[in-house]
Amino acid sequence: EATTDAGGGGDRRRSVGRRARRLYAWGSRAHWVSLLFASRADVAVSLAALGLIGGVGLSTGAAVYSRAGDPAARIAAAAHPVGDTATAFSVAGRDEAGRGAAFEIVVFDRSIAWVKGSTGDLERSGRVLTTRAVESEILAGGVRDRLADALEVIAVGAASHEGDLAAEVHRAGLRARQTAEWIRSAVPPPTPILTLNLGQYRAPCAACETSGTSCQRPFVVVAVRDKEAGVDIAQALASAMSDKSNLPSAAAYSSFGLARFR
């Protein structure tokens, strides 16, 4: 998202980019969520190698989830409107050991996004929001209710495709931490808050809209609704998202780093 020097380490970054492009494909473009985050039919990746950078600890599985079969077999996650700016998607997944967890992924609409290049400012229809506005306009009503009764809450950070990969992964990590700060007031003190760094958007497409990249850096929070003892939450969440046609896909971004915030 920032202008960076393309020299020095360019060959290494191009090599990483080639590997990333082989891994990260995309599917349906029915609406803005699926347009940018459509699940691959055959794989969803949980990567530790490009996890949280810059003082944010990493704790995630490195499993690759195979989803062989007919792409038409993908299903849409159950969706429920939350106020006038967000949709909650109910999903469930399992880790490599077969232990399960259920999630509610709250995805805010494209009018709400991170300010380009910023790690502390959210905008709504081009208007930069104050912390008070984020808490009163965005994290309000049904969203606050969903976070208040969750077993755990996950604050998600993402960055658009412009700029240096390492710098953008770092930016996404800081956005996840800022999101965690914003939702702290909506989550009772005993409830754990985690951060999820999705890293940099890595699936550009000539057929996509070209007017902007705000929808590549969406505002997303996840409520953990149920979980079996000992479940690896990162693996279960990646699995839950991997075969859904209308959810953010781990495969569309460069990282999947889960860390404890509180």
Approximate strand percentage: 15-25%
Helix content: 10-25%
Alpha-carbon Rg, integer: 17 Å
**Gap from first CA to last CA:** 28 Å
Strand tally: 12
* Helical segment count: 6
What does it look like?
The protein has 262 residues and is α+β, with helices and mostly antiparallel strands. It contains 6 helices and 12 strands. The longest helix is centred in the middle third of the chain and has 19 residues, at 165-183. The model is unreliable at 3-9, 12-71 and 205-214 (pLDDT under 50).
Q: In terms of topology, how is this protein built?
A:
Elements: H1 10-23, H2 32-37, E1 43-45, E2 64-66, E3 78-82, E4 86-94, E5 100-108, E6 112-114, E7 122-124, E8 127-128, H3 131-138, H4 141-148, E9 152-159, H5 165-183, E10 193-200, E11 220-227, H6 233-242, E12 257-260
Parallel strand pairs: 9-10
Antiparallel strand pairs: 1-2, 3-4, 4-5, 5-11, 6-7, 7-8, 9-11, 10-12
What features would you highlight for this structure?
single chain; 262 residues; alpha+beta; three-stranded antiparallel sheet; globular; disordered N terminus
Describe what is shown at a glance.
Helix content is 25%, strand content 25%.
